[in-house]
Design goal:
75 residues, 3-stranded antiparallel β-sheet, 1 helix, 3 strands
Length: 75
Amino acid sequence: MALTKSVTADKIEVVTTQDIDGNDVTVVQVRNATRVLEDGAVISQSYHRHVIQSGDDWSSEPSNVQAICNAVFGD
């Protein structure tokens, strides 16, 4: 019986929303899935979401999230 845990950014969305002044703002929403597996079968799963805005530091994000942020917000 081997237990393993994995955390992956399993959903990445580019969304346009409005700020408090009514201006359109583009953000990147990231959903991280945390899975606990026993012999390869998922026995537990939970999610955490966070939002990345222009001007935020996304350098610690996974490479696929960084690539999307670079495309949306520029380098």
